[in-house]
Amino acid sequence: MSSPDSPTVVVGAGIIGLSTAWHLADLGQRVVLVDSGPAAGGTTTAGAGFVGQWAAGYAWYWNESERDVEQYGIDFYRRLAESGHGPTGYRRNGNVWLTVTEQGRADHIPPFEDHPLRPAGARTLTPAEAADLVPGLDPSAVTAGFLHPDGIQISAPDTAAALVGALRAKGVAIREHTAVAGLEARDGSVTGVRTAGGEVIDAARVVLAAGSWTNALLAPLGRELPTVRVVASRLVTKPFGLPGTLPTLMLPELEGLWIREHRGGLTYGAGSGYEALHVGGADRGTDPARRPVRTDLLDAMRTSVHPIVARLLPAAASVLGADETPTQGVVSMTADRNFIVGPVPELAGLVVAGGDNESGVTHGPGLGRIAAELSVTGTTTLGDPSRYDPARFPARAPSEADVVAMMPARREADARRAGATA
Predict the structure, then answer these.
(1) Pairing relation of β-strands 31-34 and 173-175?
(2) What angle do CA 238, 156, 80 make, to 5 degrees?
(3) Residue 89's CB: how many other CB atoms inside 10 A?
(4) Cα dihedral angle (393, 337, 120, 159), rounded to 10 degrees?
(5) 3-state SS of the chain: helix, strand, coil percent to 5?
(6) Which of 56, 275, 394, 422 is most exposed by smallest CB count within 10 Å?
(7) 368: CATH
(8) Where is the domain boundary, 310, 334, 358?
(9) In 199-227, which positions are buried (b, 16+ CB within 10 angstroms) versus exposed (e)?
């Protein structure tokens, strides 16, 4: 049985769990962080590592609350890079959205230009201006661009490792290779977690940040999150002399293609490299370490993306497909494309933090802060917690296929078209 002196247990050592533990420690809590594998060894290490104010023109379903969480992440990573806990790959390179057709320009540039949250220094780019900002870009391959100058890049694996080191320095106990099999409770309150080996770790409170595996722990309580687990893929080319000043490039009209520099080469991803886990059979192609191995998705992405990247950045043509390194993880998308962070109504003392919506690296620091503050004080000073409250959804979630059908369109232009035909 737990006592008031028992620690707060955080389940899951990805970016959201690491951040939660960080902020709990800052709130004076004794913290035990538990993960079924190595700390920072799951989906977070597959993160592309670019961070920006997506709520200011890109993700039309987000507002000031998400913008504030995003800005908190930008500031958090800068402070972490300055703290000396380890290399993070932090760079303030900015984010540049590009369009390649006139229809794409008409669809995707005005939402940035007219957005009420437009950040200082943001501006529309002609093709020539985009080429001045983007080393190696062929201006004839694009029709317009838009710059957010404060976007940053980090190395997700290096940053996660730096956070692990910082947490140990703060006195956080990290239990690796310790799978949690269930929750312990008494009189309607959480009292600890039970490991797969049968050990009970007492806890004054628990935060579940287990990513796409959170529902397995919540289901016995009669609570499920309306999420869909999705395989996300990216590829990394060999170095070819690309300068580290390249901004993160986003091409929303091309399956959400994104491109950034990585150690003198490129890393990139697009919609053709994504598929929900339930398609073709539950957890198809997932290895015992919970990392997906889907060569079919990687091949589809190469086929669709290589010609586009070669047109945009001609110098990359020689390395595309030449011993590229794949990285895949499982992201958790929610029914309304917003995050799920807050107390679980069925069990006092239990907070859940999940539903990364493929943006856990950007939002992880802020979501971890919200989870920690809600766990300890019942309130938060960041964002609007009502937008993330698990209780906004029914206790029983629909199937993952139904969750996909419920999700709003990814692009504002698609949402407008859907509304016009409804």
Answers:
(1) parallel
(2) 130
(3) 19
(4) 100
(5) 35, 25, 40
(6) 422
(7) 3.50.50.60
(8) 334
(9) eebbbbbbbbbbbbbbbebbeebebbbbb
Q: Which domain holds residue 125?
A: 93-152+228-334
Q: 237 and 117, same structural domain?
A: yes
CA distance 154 to 235: 16
pLDDT tens digits, 81-129: 999 999 999 999 999 999 999 999 999 999 999 999 999 999 999 999 9
- Distance (Å, whole) CA 361 – CA 366: 10
| pLDDT 10s digits, 168-206 | 999 999 999 999 999 999 999 999 999 999 999 999 999
Model confidence over 290-311: pLDDT tens digits? Answer: 567 899 999 999 999 999 999 9
- 239 and 310 together in one domain: yes
Confidence of residue 285 (pLDDT cuts 50, 70, 90): very low
**Which of 288, 313, 334 is where one domain is finished?**
334
Q: Measuring CA to CA, how many Å separate 51 from each of 88, 91, 95, 262, 317? A: 13, 10, 8, 15, 26
- Across the beta sheet with 350-354, what order do the strands follow? 173-175, 31-34, 8-11, 205-208, 350-354, 340-343
Side chain identity, residue 6: S
CATH of the domain at 103: 3.30.9.10
Q: pTM for the complete prediction?
A: 0.95
C-alpha span between 413 and 197 (Å, rounded): 50
Domains contained in the chain, number: 2
CA–CA dist 221, 211 (Å, integer) = 18
